[in-house]
Amino acid sequence: MLKNSDSINNETEKSKKFVFQLYDENIDFVESLSYQEKNDILNQLLNDYRLSNIYGKKLVKKASNIKKSVIIFFAVIIGIPLILYLISLSLNLTKSSYTQMQNNFSKLF
Hints:
By secondary structure, the chain is mainly α. The protein has helices at 2-14, 24-32, 35-108. The longest helix is centred in the middle third of the chain and has 74 residues, at 35-108.
């Protein structure tokens, strides 16, 4: 018997009372409910809201990850050929510059 009274006391210590303001159209419905039904409905609504909030955050995070993936994909697709082109251009300019210097040097001597 002691365990039951301890668990009841423990539950009431965890519980808190809150005051909510309802819209006029909901007052009659809420007054028609029993105390336990009111508690059950309110707790269920809060649980549903919390779950939908978590689900919404997951969707936002997933969308953000997809956007980042697409940006990285296009950066790689555009970036790698651009880097290869710039390296090729740089090598060609270096080679032509070296050839031009060699021709100039041979003209001097």
